Amino acid sequence: MDGVGNVIEGAELPELDQEFARKKNMALLPIMDTLLYNIQRQGKISFYMTAHGEEATVVGTAAALLPDDEVLGQYRELGVLLWRGWGIDAAMAQCFGNEQDKASKGRQMPVHWGSPQHHFHTISSPLATQIPQAAGVAYALRRDPARRGKNCAAVYFGEGAASEGDFHAGMLFASTISSPTLFIARNNGFAISTPSSEQYFGDGIAARGAGYGIDTIRVDGNDVLAVLSATREARRKCVESGRGVLVEAMTYRVGHHSTSDDSFAYRARQEVEDRKRIDNPIARYRLFLKNRGWWSDSDEDELKESLKKDVMRAFKTAEGLKRHELSDIFSDVYGGEEPLNLKEQREELTQLLRKYGTVWEPWKAELKKFKDNGESLLGRSK
Amino acid sequence: MTAPSIASTARAAKRLSPSTLSRLSVARRCNSTGAEPPPAGGHLPSIATSKILRTTREAALRTPGIKWLDEDGNSPLQNTIGGRETRKMNLYQAVRDAMGIALAKDDTAIVFGEDVAFGGVFRCTMGLAEEFGRERVFNTPLSEQGIAGFGIGVASMGQTAIAEIQFSDYIFPAFDQLVNEAAKFRYRSGGQFNVGRLTVRTPSMSVGHGGLYHSQSPEGFFMGASGLKIVVPRSPVQAKGLLLASIRDPNPVIFMEPKILYRSAVEQVPIDDFELPLGRAEVLVPGADLTLLTWGTPLYHCETALSLLAEPPASLAPLVPEALRGARIELIDLRTVLPWDVESVIESVQRTGRLVIVHEASRTAGVGAEIAAEVQSRAFLKLLAPVRRVTAWDTPVGLQFEKFIIPDAIHVLDAVMETLAF
Ligand SMILES: Cc1ncc(C[n+]2csc(CCOP(=O)(O)OP(=O)(O)O)c2C)c(N)n1
Ligand SMILES: [Mg+2]
């Protein structure tokens, strides 16, 4: 597609029916992002990271995967989970860390998604750790007779994270110990303030594939149809050969790195505005749909209205919910038998809470935020 | 070990020996706050109002152990304070100031790490790239092992490397370089090579909403790496003096900056070049009944706890036995965690007979374990109570649970009372 949604001469359109094409509308992700970003600014959640500008990369790759391909993300891949039907409520619950947050029981910061039902492994903040893990996941898929030759492990990472040693280990393992790993590099031009020109001197991430004997394709990450085609083909190769394949999607991080960042301290506001206008992945795809007669302005308005309502409703619900039980401080550290130190420390906290929970203001106020008001500890019989 | 139970208030008073009781009742805490008892959690000493901070020029220039390093390195040290200037700085500005001095005075010095060129995510390197040029202050690719390894290489050539790891939670990819390389460089080369000119700065400790990976205090993981030094400053003056000392120390130093203090801790900081001693603890509040030992952020919780003990607000008063309120608690900032100041700590515990160690890292095999082991073997007969550790639980730092995981003033208060009443 060119900048206004026309198919470039000589380009092959991916297989695509009207329903699928409409589904891939990428409308929900920016609506979620905008709301969550804004409520962070209001202090309602502790942190957020948007995918503004990268919608086509995230949604286009998601659409190319089978719903049960294992996904290991970095953090900007909410679009994959939404595509798989994880749901607005689940995402809200994670960001609020409320009692419905199954992804981390309120233990991780916002954007640390995860759902085994949706084959999406829980996000971890330390960068690039998921990359060699993906090679292991892929190897496990290969060893599973029911999934061998059917599924792959798709791993997302930024061009910044690709500088970590773990990236190299992951690529090397996936090719040497052949395992169907689909490496998806989101090259959005920045790692926080560091432009990609200071991240690598070579030709991006794609140039590294050959060094590991990994088939590689680079794609316009703001052209959702190109992303879809490239990823479908890469995935096919990956699953058929049982080896790693690398996709580098070239895009641009329109938003700030996160709610902790003000990107105008290191890049010009105008640069961002220009990008938004000239190479907007959502606008490009809308024009394509319109050109085909598959989409109209009223479709657009209707969809946005209804999505905004859904998102607003989910936000209101999530905001009103309390946190998990206080005793979840100590659960899930180990599986199986709980070691003595944790048992005793739970008891130590219980005693402290009994003594000070109603008289020490910082605790008194905090206890009310848990769905059990702390009773799971306070009410324990000694 | 069983978890110490929380003593009832009645028992607490009863179990004190008569001699301790009389000692406690005449005691006066030297930094007790005003007459009005503050409401719990309300107007307690906070970082902003902390008496630990040196907020006047006079106090800043009289920082204990301060060593001035004036322009001309050959002239005798000027120990006078007359004519010296100070400026109001928060902790990140003091860190920046120290690096500015290091870069200005030492042509070999370089500053590098992720996002340092635009000033760093905590603003510690703000303006340094503009002032000293991109050859000396630069962004690195996103690789902590790369940053540490690169710094080791630079330092091995006798040049000064000041590296930043963006969060101490992300120091682990550099663990191999730091523990197997930096720490052992001198020893393994028969003393021919060393990387003493390497300093790795890294923001550390919790902020209240950081969750698993923006809250850790990883100093304990380095305790077995002899050859490294680990330094944790508590305030702007300390940060500047200790960082300059770290940069110039003949050993590689990991300098962990409590990130919650970057903006909240403000002092008058001498603008001249000065150092504060590594390997030396500092007594912040002298006392005779109990030694309260910590470093970094928890110092401020300890200060609050001392105020709660001396003058409990009405809500807590029934839980704080009168007999304990006059206890004279010695508050010590360990400052250098490795190698730690055994002598000062032992000297203090031998006088007080009681030790409470506070740190934000979890308990098992935390730094407190090492200190407790050493103290019990060196001061066994002087101990009047078991050495008590106030730490995070042996769990990761769950975001929504942080207020009940990371120890605060009430944990400290309780442990102090228990230990006094043992
Ligand atoms: C090991 C590690 N080092 C540093 C960080 C801090 N950090 C978080 S995101 C980020 C930049 C990542 O950039 P990139 O991989 O390009 O992803 P993008 O944010 O652009 O999507 C950094 C440095 C971290 N989370 N983990
Ligand atoms: Mg990036």
From TrEMBL, chain A:
The lineage of its organism: Eukaryota, Fungi, Dikarya, Basidiomycota, Agaricomycotina. The branched-chain alpha-keto dehydrogenase complex catalyzes the overall conversion of alpha-keto acids to acyl-CoA and CO(2). It contains multiple copies of three enzymatic components: branched-chain alpha-keto acid decarboxylase (E1), lipoamide acyltransferase (E2) and lipoamide dehydrogenase (E3). This is 2-oxoisovalerate dehydrogenase subunit alpha. GO terms for molecular function: branched-chain 2-oxo acid dehydrogenase activity. Its cofactor is thiamine diphosphate. The keyword Oxidoreductase applies. SUPFAM superfamilies: Thiamin diphosphate-binding fold (THDP-binding). Its EC number is 1.2.4.4. It comes from Lactarius akahatsu. InterPro entries: Alpha-ketoacid_DH_E1_comp, DH_E1, THDP-binding. It is an enzyme of class 1 (oxidoreductase). Keywords: Oxidoreductase, Thiamine pyrophosphate. Belongs to the BCKDHA family. It holds the Pfam family E1_dh. It catalyses: N(6)-[(R)-lipoyl]-L-lysyl-[protein] + 3-methyl-2-oxobutanoate + H(+) = N(6)-[(R)-S(8)-2-methylpropanoyldihydrolipoyl]-L-lysyl-[protein] + CO2. Residues 24-325 form the Dehydrogenase E1 component domain. It comes from the Eukaryota. One of its GO terms (biological process) is branched-chain amino acid catabolic process.
TrEMBL record, chain B:
InterPro entries: THDP-binding (IPR029061), Transketo_C/PFOR_II (IPR009014), Transketolase-like_Pyr-bd (IPR005475), Transketolase_C (IPR033248). Its EC number is 1.2.4.4. GO terms for biological process: branched-chain amino acid catabolic process; generation of precursor metabolites and energy; response to nutrient. Keywords: Oxidoreductase. Residues 89-264 form the Transketolase-like pyrimidine-binding domain. This is 3-methyl-2-oxobutanoate dehydrogenase (2-methylpropanoyl-transferring). It comes from the Eukaryota. SUPFAM superfamilies: Thiamin diphosphate-binding fold (THDP-binding) (SSF52518), TK C-terminal domain-like (SSF52922). It catalyses: N(6)-[(R)-lipoyl]-L-lysyl-[protein] + 3-methyl-2-oxobutanoate + H(+) = N(6)-[(R)-S(8)-2-methylpropanoyldihydrolipoyl]-L-lysyl-[protein] + CO2. GO terms for molecular function: branched-chain 2-oxo acid dehydrogenase activity. Pfam families: Transket_pyr, Transketolase_C. Its cofactor is thiamine diphosphate.
